[in-house]
Structures are given as C-alpha cells and as structure tokens.
Design brief:
Largest sheet: none
Number of helices: 7
Distance between the termini: 45 Å
Strand content: under 5%
Structural class: mainly alpha
Shape: elongated
Length: 115
C-alpha cells in the first residue's frame, strides 16, 4: 500500500473529507486529488503536518505497520512544531547542562504532584 493510499484509508476511517483534510493541512485540494488520480505520494515536507492532522506517527503513516488489527507497532514519539510552546521548551531543555535538566525534571515532577 502506498502512503497516499494509507492517507485515504485513514481519512475514510476518520470520516474526514478531502476538503476538510485540505483545509486542516493547507495542502490544496487539487494536490490531494492528484494523489488518488495519479497514484502519487505527498512530498516529504508535508508528512509531519499530515501526521499531525490524521493523528498518526510518521512511522505509522510511512510503514503502515499493523499490530493486532491496529495501525501501530508501539512506537512512542511526538511531532511537535518548533515554534509551539512545547517546541520552545524542548529547545531550551536541550541547551541545559545535565545538572539543570535534573533540577528542572524534579521541579516538574513536584508540580505534577500538586495537580
């Protein structure tokens, strides 16, 4: 199964129209339609936004691995836009030395206990 075929399968499962998909991803409807008509795949720079919109990991989308009837192999990962709050946190965390990372994680664990 090609990536585009997998996309259309997921769209069908999620009862999402091509127009809705196009609106959410910013990918023109004509491009999405071409994937089906010409049996082509999306450009690599569109994979992350497609995955985010469809709620699947890049691994799931690209491999189509199924385990026990589900489109998953237990891979845990996040797709986080760089400019988002989470993305900024990850960048700042990456700049810290190990001691400060440990202190920050301890602080966050403490905050989680307050919730």
């Amino acid at each position: 199964m090609t990536v585009s075929q997998r996309i259309f399968q997921i769209l069908k499962e999620k009862k999402m129209t091509q127009k809705e998909f196009s609106d959410r991803t910013g990918i023109p409807q004509s491009t999405v339609s071409d994937w089906r008509k010409k049996n082509t795949n999306p450009a690599s720079d569109k994979i992350l936004i497609i995955c985010d919109t469809l709620g699947v990991t890049p691994y799931e989308l690209l491999s189509g691995v199924e385990e026990e009837g589900k489109r998953s192999n237990g891979v845990d990962c996040y797709v986080i836009p760089k400019g988002s709050e989470e993305g900024i946190l990850l960048e700042l965390y990456g700049e810290l030395d190990q001691e400060r990372r440990n202190r920050l994680l301890g602080y966050l664990e403490g905050l989680r206990g307050l919730c």
